[in-house]
Amino acid sequence: QVQLQESGPGLVKPSQTLSLTCTVSGGSITGNYYYYNWIRQPPGKGLEWMGVINYSGYTYSRPSLKSRTSISRDTSKNQFTLQLSSVTPEDTAVYYCTRGDSDYEYDYWGQGTQVTVSS
Q1: Less packed terminus of the chain by CB within 10 Å, N or C?
Q2: Exposed, middle or buried: residue 110 (CB in 10 Å: 0-12, 13-18, 19+)?
Q3: How far apart are CA 48 and CA 27, in angstroms?
Q4: Do the Cβ atoms of 10 and 113 come closer than 8 Å?
C-alpha cells in the first residue's frame, strides 16, 4: 500500500521560504516511472499544480511559479521536497503531494497540509 505524507510548518511569515516534505512509503520514488507532484488549493479556489519530480530526478515547475519554486528529493529517505521562496498571503493554501504518471493522472494523494502565510 503506497502512502504519501506531507510535513512542514503550518505558519510561514511573508517573504520567507516555505519548505514542505513528502514522505513516500510502500514504493521507491526512483522506481516504476512514476511522477511525484506538488499541488495546492487556496481557500475558495481550485487545485493548482505546482511542479513535479520524476523517478529519474527530472523536475519541472509551473511557469508562473518557476522563479520561486525548487523541488528536490532525498532518495535515501524516500522523500521529495518543495521550497517556495518569497511567500505572500496569496500562497496560503492546503498543499498536497501526489504520485502519478507522465499524463498527470494521480493514483495516490497525501492527506494535505495547511500552510498559512501571515505575520
Answers
A1: N
A2: buried
A3: 25
A4: yes
